[in-house]
TrEMBL record:
Residues 10-103 form the CoA-binding domain. It is an enzyme of class 6 (ligase). It comes from Halolamina pelagica. Pfam families: ATP-grasp_5, CoA_binding_2, Ligase_CoA_2, Succ_CoA_lig. This is acetate--CoA ligase (ADP-forming). Gene3D superfamilies: ATP-grasp fold, A domain, ATP-grasp fold, B domain, NAD(P)-binding Rossmann-like Domain, Succinyl-CoA synthetase domains. Keywords: ATP-binding, Ligase, Nucleotide-binding, Transferase. NCBIfam families: AcCoA-syn-alpha (TIGR02717).
Length: 701
């Protein structure tokens, strides 16, 4: 990826050179030349084997072109593609699209070729798209530097895709739907420019209202989050991310040469970055049309006007599954509806104007609902009747929406009879859907974007920690060849200010007795071995050990461990202060290092329930105080922390601080690959980490 890449020349060049241009039927070089027929600038064929291409002078190389070239499109075979890019760089070209496949997506030889391509791009400071790309397209310039079969209609959506074939299908479908685009780019293998570069470009593009993306993975997770977080404050970004399942992730990796990150990490990253996630292509464009044409709602309260009870109930159910809620009408609204609607009508939300409603009744009901200050947005649903002309109803909906300035979506159900009405609505920026659930989800996307734009991002806190002590603990473990650590690493948490019980790691019965004497009351004793993960399952944990029993208990624990796994590395026994777990709620605080996004924090209900209930929330570290609070709020079991059913309320501020402190720890040390604090006991007096285990990569220290 280029830092602060100036990608303007990719979409608005004055002169385009097609390296590998030809007239051969069925060739990519011919298809691109033909697709550039409407380009407002100059098209220059480059091919040393031809004098002309489709009647235009053809040059042997880019250096021979008499005027400066802004964009070079490379379609030569893989063995000479890198040389072609180098020649373009030497000739002063700054923007290059490599259509040619045969790079990292094909194996080790292709991966080596892609490294060479990246090196050439860096040497000449090139904005390079691809390789293995369908090309780029920009409607204002008439630029179609792709080999796709369809051009795009003009519009205000800009679209990036990691799949070229997906672009061809989308453009063909969008043309039938009347959906237009500003820019389209096929990312290909993302050897240089990636999704973050194009997000930055479109953020500064006043002609792009919404950014759409199909992604199989991201090149740099942290950069993506930081970039998208800034972009989405002003410009909505809607993404379909494939590879949700393990099988899908494997397929994505083999298709693009990208190692897909975990689904949980992508979900967290999109949420933190303010990206609206679509589950499929239909949602992608449903959301796009709503975000492109409608104003933002003042609230999440929805008013529904319908002439059909069943679809109204369907819409109400869909609202219940969304972030939205059904508006409660004011007394003035209910009185106005009671005066103007028939006695058989339902004046409560959803408003049922009943099947014999004419245009005037629809208009009165919609006008009344939109005038209610408690209504933030509205849905108009109509089943076809002989009384209602859909085009007239569409005009009324558009007029009322413009008058009140609130987002309205339509659900004029039917086939051919709804097509002309959909065109009328489309001219006003109002989408029409057959399915009421799609109408609701589109308004939900508006509400999500509204929340994103209202966010105030804050920097993660920087706590005063003992980083050198933490490094020493990790280095000592690495020096003895350990990759997995257990309670012997409790000092790591202590160094970062996470409270832990008094404890000591001992290697003989006498030391155990001495350690226990320094602790008030009975103690807990645990076998310490990186090779024995579930210590309680083998009887490797003793709770409530009295002082006089400490030595014998030490011998018992060691014997059990050796009998269970004779070849296990046993570091000794931990003698720990007894903690009353009934005095609080057992939670888990953990981290898994994702290949794309880095440390993925997890917080949830802990103890023995974590794998059974799976009530957890995740974020990419580092996290702010707001994000730590959201991790707590998202749990279904959050009421347990807040004193449900007579339980003592936990110190929630201490929980949030613990999340932030662990976030700082795993951000500071890339060597920590996995870490679980389980349980993290949350009580009214604060938190305590009772157990820990982690995996490290010594090479990262």
């Amino acid at each position: 990826m280029n830092e602060e890449a100036d990608t303007g020349g990719l979409f608005a060049p004055e002169r385009v050179a097609v390296i590998g241009a030809t007239e051969r039927e069925g060739s990519i070089g011919a298809a691109i030349i033909q697709n550039l027929a409407d380009f407002t600038g100059d098209v220059v064929p480059v091919n040393p084997s031809r004098d002309t291409v489709f009647g235009q002078p053809c040059y042997p190389d880019v250096a021979s072109v008499p005027d400066p070239v802004d964009l070079a499109v490379v379609v030569v075979p893989p063995p000479i593609a890198v040389d072609a890019v180098r020649e373009a760089g030497e000739a002063g070209v700054k923007n290059v699209v490599v259509i040619t496949a045969g790079f990292s997506e094909t194996g080790s030889e292709g991966a080596q070729r892609e490294q060479e391509l990246r090196a050439v791009a860096a040497e000449y400071d090139l904005n390079l798209v691809g390789p293995n790309s369908l090309g780029v397209l920009s409607t204002p310039e008439g630029l179609n530097a792709t080999f796709g079969p369809s051009n795009a209609l003009p519009g205000s959506l800009s679209f990036m895709s990691q799949s070229g074939a997906f672009i061809t299908a989308v453009l063909d479908w969008a043309n039938d739907q009347g959906i237009g685009f500003k820019d389209v780019v096929s990312l290909g293998n993302k050897a240089v420019l990636d999704e973050s570069d194009f997000l930055t470009h479109w953020q500064d593009d006043p002609a792009t209202n919404v950014v759409l993306g199909y992604l199989e993975g991201v090149a740099d997770g942290r950069t993506f989050i930081d970039t998208a977080r800034e972009v989405t404050q002003e410009t909505p970004v809607v993404v379909v991310k494939s590879g949700r399942t393990e099988a899908g992730a494997d397929a994505a990796s083999s298709h693009t040469g990208t190692i897909a990150g975990s689904e949980a990490a992508y979900e967290a990253a999109f949420e933190q970055a303010g990206v609206v996630r679509a589950e499929n292509v239909q949602e992608l464009f449903d959301y796009a049309r709503a975000l492109d044409g409608l104003p933002m709602p003042d609230s999440d309260e929805v008013g529904i006007v319908t002439n059909a009870g069943g679809p109204g109930v369907m819409a109400t159910d869909a609202v219940g599954d969304s972030q939205l809620s059904m508006a409660s009408f004011t007394d003035d609204t209910l009185s106005a509806l009671e005066e103007t609607m028939p006695e058989e009508a339902n004046i409560y939300n959803p408003v049922d104007v009943i099947g014999d409603a004419d245009i005037e009744r629809f208009e009165t009901a919609l006008d009344t609902v939109l005038a209610d200050d408690d209504v933030g947005c509205a849905i108009v649903i109509s089943a076809p009747t002989a009384i209602v002309d859909y085009e007239e109803l569409a005009a009324v909906i558009a007029d009322r929406q413009a008058e009140h300035g609130k987002p309205v979506v339509a659900c004029l159900m039917g086939g051919e009879r709804a097509e002309a009405a959909a065109d009328v609505l489309g001219e006003a920026g109002i989408p029409n859907y057959f399915d009421p659930a799609r109408a609701v989800s589109s308004l939900d996307a508006l509400a999500v974007q509204q929340d994103v734009e209202a966010r105030s991002y804050e920097a993660p806190a920087e706590f005063d920690v003992d980083r050198e002590r933490a490094r020493a603990i990790l280095t000592d473990a690495a020096d003895r060849g350990a990759r997995r650590l257990g309670v012997e690493a409790m000092g790591l948490l202590d160094a970062y200010g996470l409270p832990t019980p008094d404890s000591a790691l001992v290697e003989d019965p006498d030391a155990a007795e001495s350690a226990a004497a320094d602790i008030d009351g009975d103690v807990v004793m645990k076998i310490v071995s990186p090779d024995i993960l579930h210590k309680s399952d083998i009887g490797g944990v003793a709770v409530g050990v009295a002082q006089e029993d400490v030595a014998d208990t030490y011998e018992t624990l060691m014997t059990r461990a050796r009998n269970y796994q004779p070849d296990a590395s046993i570091l000794g026994v931990q003698v720990q202060e007894m903690v009353d777990t009934e005095a609080g709620t057992e939670t888990i605080l953990g981290m898994n290092r994702d290949p794309q996004f880095g440390p993925l924090l997890l917080f949830g209900l802990g103890g023995i329930f974590v794998e059974v209930l799976e009530d957890t929330s995740v974020r990419i570290a580092p996290v702010s105080g707001r994000e730590a609070g959201e991790m707590v709020d998202e749990l279904d079991s959050a009421p347990l922390l807040r004193g449900a059913r007579g339980r003592p309320s936990a110190d929630e501020a201490a929980v949030e601080e613990a999340i932030q402190r662990l976030s700082q720890l795993v951000t500071d040390f890339d060597a920590i690959l996995e870490l679980d604090v389980n349980p993290l006991l949350a009580t009214a007096d604060g938190v305590q980490a009772l157990d820990v285990r982690l995996t490290i990569d010594p090479d990262q220290l």
